[in-house]
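Homework help board

Subject: predicted structure for assignment chain

Our instructor gave us this sequence and asked us to write out the predicted structure in token form, then describe one feature. I got the tokens but I'm not sure how to describe them. Can anyone check?
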Amino acid sequence: MDAQNSANDRAAAAAQSDPPGAQAADGDHQVTNKEVRTAVSSSTIGTSIEWYDFFLYGTAAGLVFDRLYFPNDDPIVATLLAYATFAVGFIARPLGGLVFGHLGDRIGRKKTLVATMYIMGISTFLIGAIPTYDQIGYWAPVLLTLLRIAQGIAIGGEWGGAVLLSVEYAPKNRRGFFGSFPQMGIAFGLLLGTGAFTMLSVFMSPENFLAWGWRIAFFASIVLVIVGLYLRSKIAETPAFRAARANMEGLERAVPLAELFKDRISRRHMFLGMGTRYAEGVSYNLWAVFLISFATGSIGFEQTDVLISLMITAAVLAVFIPIWGRVSDSLPRRWVFGGGAIALAIVVFPAFWAMQSGSWIVLTLVLILVLGIIHPAMYGPQAAFYAELFPPSTRYSGISIVYQVSGIVAGGLTPMILTWLLGMGGLQLSLAYVIATCVVTVVCVIAIRPKHIRAVLDAEKDVTVNE
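My token output:
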């Protein structure tokens, strides 16, 4: 029996497995406002903490690690090496997605999310304690890489479970809006990460910041992790997973990854989903990671000025993520997502030309437009868009594979690719690559058939939220 039919069978049996009061007369899952608030808030705060930890590294890679953890005879080579360890985290993310996606589809979303937060918090704290290259030689980049791998595994398992907490607690006609809240974690994480480095840069001399000040931001992670673990201890499993557990024996025997490849529609959605992710991943890492070194190194902006611009942009990003998520509940999600990729392709060349004026105001306005307003047109609806590609019994694995495997090239390698293309053919070649990724995304979005999405939705019960 394929994954889709198996999911339908389990959904049909769900009414007999849910606790009293969990099903309405019409078959919908019944949840309370308190349950929804708890699930959405814990997933949003949890993803904010984990993205803070993950993107601290991205900010530090462009400002600190190239000078402290690698031989610096050639600054470009040192920067490439620092970005290479940044990319390692993305390469490790599919492993986290596979492992924790498998566990999340079999034993539940909650337990996996607690485990990922432990791994991320400990890894980030230890990065702050690594001695420099001058102190321990090549052990410094080795330890940095190993801990970056641990971060990648953690975030690889985190994203899928966190977004499903919100999406699977939402009525079908509000999944875009509910699913956008944990997506806001990337904005809050960027705001916290750049904010931490900005404050440290303002209140410290450049020498003290480079010598030891940057480590404070990594050590502070442990406090945030404690808060996140407390919140996650309060959540319950999602209604969709409780329904999928109706056939517990079959669920425990199933291998979600095998089920995904066995089902033709799920298999098709996996590959097309990865293609849709291309422009979104490149977009974020272009503006939030690559731009830091490009703006300070090639244009001549001060480090603090760029970080302040990113902080302002992150606040705007946090506002527009739920706005675009809500829009995707009214318009087809595919249209909203594809429209964001088309808009990115249109503005990327003018955006970089404008920034080279050297004006901080222009830099900030450009970042607000491209990262604060256009990027969330893809990122806001993304959680619901991907969740609706797969049935609940394999959904954690499916969306984790789509998001994390595509993230290797779309996310982790983007700063390296853009830096390499910049050296090979100048800025125009780098930006042409960005436009090419937008074309791939739009083609894949068009190739996803609405009737296949409807088939997944029709096999799943809706959710009714009560007072």
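Reply (TA_rk): Your tokens look well-formed. For the description, you could write something like this. The chain is about 80% helix and 0% strand. That's the kind of observation they're looking for.
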